[in-house]
């Protein structure tokens, strides 16, 4: 197993007016190249904080975070993030939004034609070639999210970091994009770390599900391997006893073993 991301005894605290808040404590996690890992846990347990530490948007206050064997000292083009709310620039077309990221990563060493080719290829990968000249306000929420994914993929990152990428979408669009993401990951062999609240999404997409305990001082409570064969078909899986077992394990962790204090 070739390790790509390593979190070693990682802790994160925030100092504010009301004193110190310990968000994460003793988080240990190794993610292999080509793995799809989901982070699941109750609201506020620190999932986004873990993702932001891998992205380099936050630096750990304890322990060490590594990407490709090097300490993560800030954001880098090897780790692209897709947020829940697409964060596209409204004055640029879908093509322009993707192209901007491509230029930033490859602009210094590639020709204009090569940059345009990368942009076209990323839009084609998410099925959006037809909407290339549209502006964000002219396309649906699902399409905006696909542009965000195209923008991240166009950077040819080593790791794709997804923070509830489909959280704001309706159930059908969400299912469609999950299937698309599975296809893209199968073709590109990307390493993916995804934050989600959705148990079915986690089981359907992941190789491993990292289940987090409640904060403060949240940590990894358990890690569930998802040995379901790929490609995965959501309809066939719905009736699969192994799928049901995995789903029940995550639900048991969230609602029995680590129920939120106010819900217990
Ligand atoms: N910059 C910050 N300053 C102070 N506290 C913070 C900061 N960022 C996060 N926290 C706190 O750390 C904890 C973890 O936050 P985080 O956003 O990682 O949780 P989460 O599991 O992603 O939540 P959700 O599922 O609701 O998005 C929360 O209690 C949050 O209030």
UniProtKB/TrEMBL annotation:
ABC transporter domain segment(s)? 5-239
Q: Where does it localize?
A: Cell membrane
Keyword Cell membrane assigned = yes
Q: Which domain of life is it from?
A: Bacteria
Any one Pfam family match given in the protein's UniProt record, by short name: ABC_tran
What keywords sit in the KW lines?
Answer: ATP-binding, Cell membrane, Membrane, Nucleotide-binding, Transport
Stretches that traverse the bilayer? none
Into which family does the record put it? Belongs to the ABC transporter superfamily.
- This one is known as ABC transporter ATP-binding protein
Species:
Crenobacter caeni
């Amino acid at each position: 197993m070739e390790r790509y991301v390593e979190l070693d005894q990682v802790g994160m605290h925030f100092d504010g007016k009301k004193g110190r808040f310990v968000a994460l404590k003793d988080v240990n996690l190794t993610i292999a190249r080509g793995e799809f890992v989901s982070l699941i846990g109750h609201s506020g347990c620190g999932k986004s904080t873990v993702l932001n530490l891998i992205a380099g948007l936050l630096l750990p206050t304890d322990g060490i975070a590594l990407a490709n064997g090097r300490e993560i000292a800030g954001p880098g083009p090897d780790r692209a993030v897709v947020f829940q709310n697409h964060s596209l620039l409204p004055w640029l077309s879908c093509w322009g939004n993707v192209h901007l990221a491509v230029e930033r990563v490859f602009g210094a060493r590639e020709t204009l034609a090569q940059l345009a080719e990368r942009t076209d290829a990323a839009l084609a990968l998410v099925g959006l070639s037809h909407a290339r000249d549209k502006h964000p306000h002219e396309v649906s929420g699902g399409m905006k999210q696909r542009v965000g994914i195209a923008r991240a993929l166009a950077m040819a990152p080593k790791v794709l970091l997804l923070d509830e990428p489909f959280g704001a979408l309706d159930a059908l669009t969400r299912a469609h994009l999950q299937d698309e993401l599975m296809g893209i990951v199968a073709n590109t062999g990307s390493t993916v770390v995804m934050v989600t609240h959705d148990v079915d999404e986690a089981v359907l997409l992941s190789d491993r599900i990292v289940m987090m305990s409640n904060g403060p001082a949240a940590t990894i409570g358990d890690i569930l391997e998802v040995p379901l064969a790929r490609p995965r078909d959501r309809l066939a899986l719905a009736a699969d006893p192994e799928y049901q077992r995995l789903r029940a394990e995550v639900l048991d962790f969230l609602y029995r073993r680590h129920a939120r204090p106010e819900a217990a």
